[in-house]
Amino acid sequence: MNLSKDLMAASSAPLILAILADGESYGYEIVQRVAELSGGKLHWTDGMMYPLLHRLEKQGYLAAVWRVAETGRKRKYYALTDAGKGVISEQQKQWQVVNNALNNAWRSTDNMIGTGGSNDGFQPA
Fold first, then answer.
1. Residue 124 lies in a domain
2. What is the pLDDT of residues 81-106, one digit of tens each?
3. Is 68 domain-assigned?
4. Closest CA to 53 of 38, 64, 45, 42
5. Which one of 69, 83, 84, 106 is most buried, by most CB atoms within 10 A?
6. Does 123 map to a domain?
C-alpha cells in the first residue's frame, strides 16, 4: 500500500515527536522505528525526514547535538525540548478527533455499502 503524500506529510511530525518522547534518537534509527511501528507499511526517505527534523528543530520542538557513535561515526542526535513535549498532547487530541470522525464516516459508509446502499436516485452525469 502506498500512502498519499498528503497523509504522509500530515502524520510525519506527530510520529517523530512520539518516537522521540521515548528518548533521543538519530535519523536512521527514527526511519527504522517508523517502519517498525507501521508494520513495514511506512517507508521514509532521508529527503523527507531530514527537512522535517530541521523544521521541528527550528520551531523549538527538538534539540540536536552531534556525537560520535560506538562505531566511530558522527551522528546528529535529536531530543524533545520542553516545547516539543508540550505539543505532543495537543497533537494527540487533534489526531483523535480526526480518527474518530473518519471512523464514524467509514462506519456509515460500510453500512450503506454492506446493505446495498442507496444513492437516493443520484445519477452521475
1. no
2. 999 999 999 999 999 999 999 999 99
3. yes
4. 64
5. 84
6. no
